[in-house]
């Protein structure tokens, strides 16, 4: 119930018109058949009593007009609900995307959240959108409840009228109602239990098929429509391999769906038997009343119609309650994901201080001063351990970075270099120790202010399938002259001018046929130009030139020394030749800072650095 209420509140916040439209739709849809049945009973009685044709035609005309108006109202409301449902789906996707972007990066990267995301993708692939489905279930639930209420009122009215018209002793009426109610309750309980068992089985089944469907979805959604895989598939003739793997997963999914279909059929057959039993009891009861002339022929028509709708309402109510119970388990996954982003993390949350307002004011003043003034960054006994990991990624790291310094961090894979950079970018939070800027813990600075201080280029950077100028400026609005300048700085001005639409050319072919797919080295140069465009006082580069050849890398680093001579620069590189001109080199090994100094100094005092240098130098002899 908590999940259902929470979901209704979220739907109301996202699309306020949807719930009112749903309630109005349910009222008209529930009342419509009963009005029609009443008119039909009236017409049958008029025919049976041989009323004048004019009266019969008038009644039929009123029936037709009423039915038309009700149909019109239902159709218009259904159209409004469809529009609102589409809007709900878009807003849900937007909420989901914002939650992912606002979530603390270390949480988003965690296996727990990634598994949750995969489960959400799988359930959406199999069942459709859970929020739209929830809105539809609410609509069906309201309709079935209102149908039951309207039918119950009609049934009581018919029973009372029958008793009054035939002077049946009033003591029998409670017995009649109790008899019918008892049967209805008993059958309803059986149907509900059947539905609940089926709902639990469905949820567990989706958990079983998720690994299989993940493979099926990967081929169907990633491999087949993505032209980027096309070159390898053709060169290495992988069509047969891929078709075989896809067929295996397809057959597994098909077998699963067949078993699920068999279980669904058993569930529906059981419900059909129970519903048919109720109809049998109803028809016997109504037939008996008609046989003994307790009710007239028109009332028989009304009674059968009302009872049928009542049973449909009961059946629909049981089905929707079952669906509601089943869907809430899938909705809980969405809610859990959104809750992850609401918990204190990076974002704009200030942590670790007693007086948040004062701390934020001090931090804001500090960051404004740092932009154009002097600053010093210090790692003070910093350690970091990944969740569920046994080893420390970083252990007791301490060093300082002064304004204007160019620092290189080197070490073998897994030595902790990238973890150090992510801590500095506040993508991770230290397990212990403190990272400070001018003596203030960076965790006490609003993230939205801190990131203005930093430009970063990561090895696994991403160019979005939008215009080149938007990729560089990270905005719809861009300083065109500045964009042209940074493209010249990284040696891409001529290449971009040769493109059909210049800086307004789309990256890749996803959204524009005239788009351009850059080479790995060209893409890295665009990523570097993005950092240059931001023009922050502190620049971080995590192997930004890994896709460049040695000559291009040497050219870029030579430009860095000129372009960023007055800025603070920290970068990771596997090519030690790029580190020679740095003010200081930090050598990491097994998560620890083993040595620091300039190139010549480290060749003498650091065996680790000397080993790495000699291993690379021999390749250029």
How would you summarize what this structure contains?
The protein contains 20 helices and 10 strands. The protein has helices spanning 2-14, 18-48, 53-102, 105-109, 111-127, 130-166, 172-223, 230-235, 239-291, 297-342, 356-372, 417-424, 447-450, 468-473, 480-489, 493-497, 520-534, 550-563, 599-605, 607-617, and strands at residues 376-384, 394-402, 406-410, 432-437, 440-441, 454-457, 538-542, 568-572, 584-589, 592-597.
Could you characterize what this model shows?
By secondary structure, the protein is of the alpha/beta class. 66% of the residues lie in helices and 9% in strands. It has helices spanning 2-14, 18-48, 53-102, 105-109, 111-127, 130-166, 172-223, 230-235, 239-291, 297-342, 356-372, 417-424, 447-450, 468-473, 480-489, 493-497, 520-534, 550-563, 599-605, 607-617; strands at 376-384, 394-402, 406-410, 432-437, 440-441, 454-457, 538-542, 568-572, 584-589, 592-597. The chain has a 6-stranded mixed beta sheet with strand order 6-7-8-3-9-10, with helices on both faces. Helix 2 packs antiparallel against helix 10 (297-342), helix 5 packs across helix 7 and helix 19 packs across helix 20 (607-617). The longest helix has 53 residues, at 239-291. Mean pLDDT is 78; it is low at 345-357.
Could you list some keywords that capture this structure?
66% helix; elongated; six-stranded mixed beta sheet; four-stranded antiparallel beta sheet; alpha/beta; 621 residues; 20 helices
